[in-house]
Amino acid sequence: MNIIKEAAGGAPEEVRDADLAYINAFSRRPLKGEEVYVFSVRLCDNEVDRDGERFETETLNELAPLFQGKSGIFDHQWSARGQSARIFRTEVVREPETVTRAGDGLCWLKGYAYMLRTPGSEELIARIEGGILREVSVGCAVERAVCSVCGAPRGECRHTPGERYGGKLCYVSLQGGRDAFEWSFVAVPAQREAGVLKGIRAENAGLRRALGDRPEELERLKRLEREAANGRRWREELRREVVRLGLLADGKAPAELLERMTEGLEVRELETMREVYAARVEERFPLPVQLDYGERTADAGSDGAFII
């Protein structure tokens, strides 16, 4: 599955001879120090983000070499016209004194990027040094996104990211760094330190490349991805409701059995099950009637009768 991760970046760096050796491995001719502008970016980290997901430390180690040589663009518009810089070196920075929400030491993936000093890049360099361009987003692929509590694939269990179960924080663990696509300057990061903007899925990666210079179609694809995400959330909420009603309708059925029964069902099937179970629950636990309209002769002498 493909992930887009955002981060803070844009810190100027001194051009060193060792850096030039890395840079010249990507250039067509040997470049001199005065010809390049070097800066660093914080690509992603192992903190739990606002969406309840995080890269595992091992995943960051796997992604580090994959980002070497990857181009920097703008807003994930996959077009050669938008290429502005290139990462020539990466490293995983560890800060053990800072503890993540998951309880381990913080670490983050740092990338060193370069761009050519040309009349056309002067404004871009000024915006980086002035702090205007700071946030970057990385597009990469991971093999698995699983629940930190039970290990089930994302969306296939009843654990909710951000909640604690037996004292353990639930989040979606991103594991197995498989590929790195690009990194991009963006406007707003979603992650607290190394921001996250998700939504690029494996089946859409090639389509995004093809639509790189067609912003209207890209926006339509993003809208469809958002709608699909909303649909997945609705299905999971519906599935949990079916399990709840099933437990009420038949107290003998174990929750694990109901969860397995509903795992592969479509939304329409879940809606049918919800209606069936809701009717059974109503039969089993009928609402008490507060008013009695049966024929009854009121005792005029009693305090409980009203005579008009």
Feature tags:
single chain, 308 residues, alpha+beta, 2 domains, seven-stranded mixed beta barrel, two-stranded antiparallel ribbon, 7 helices, 29% helix, 28% strand, elongated, disordered C terminus
Q: Give the rounded overall mean pLDDT.
A: 77
Count every helix, treating DSSP H or I runs of 4 or more residues as helices: 7
Numbering strands along the chain, what is their spatial order in the largest sheet?
A: 1-2-6-5-4-10-7
Form type:
elongated
- The count of β-strands is 10
State the secondary-structure class: alpha+beta
Low-confidence blocks of residues: 75-80, 189-203, 304-308
N-C termini distance: 75 Å
Which SSEs are present, and which pair or pack?
Blueprint: E1 2-13, H1 17-24, E2 36-45, E3 53-55, H2 57-63, E4 71-74, E5 85-99, E6 105-116, H3 122-129, E7 135-147, E8 164-165, E9 168-169, E10 172-185, H4 205-210, H5 215-249, H6 255-262, H7 267-284
Parallel strand pairs: 3-10, 4-10
Antiparallel strand pairs: 1-2, 1-7, 2-6, 4-5, 5-6, 7-10, 8-9
Give your account of this protein's structure.
By secondary structure, the chain is of the alpha+beta class. The chain folds into two domains: 2-212, no CATH class; 227-284. The protein is 29% helix and 28% strand. The protein is built from seven helices and ten strands. The strands form two sheets. The protein has a seven-stranded mixed β-barrel with strand order 1-2-6-5-4-10-7. Strands 8-9 form a two-stranded antiparallel ribbon. Helix 5 packs antiparallel against helix 6 and helix 5 runs parallel beside helix 7 (267-284). The protein is elongated, with a radius of gyration of 28 Å. The model is unreliable at 75-80, 189-203 and 304-308 (pLDDT under 50).
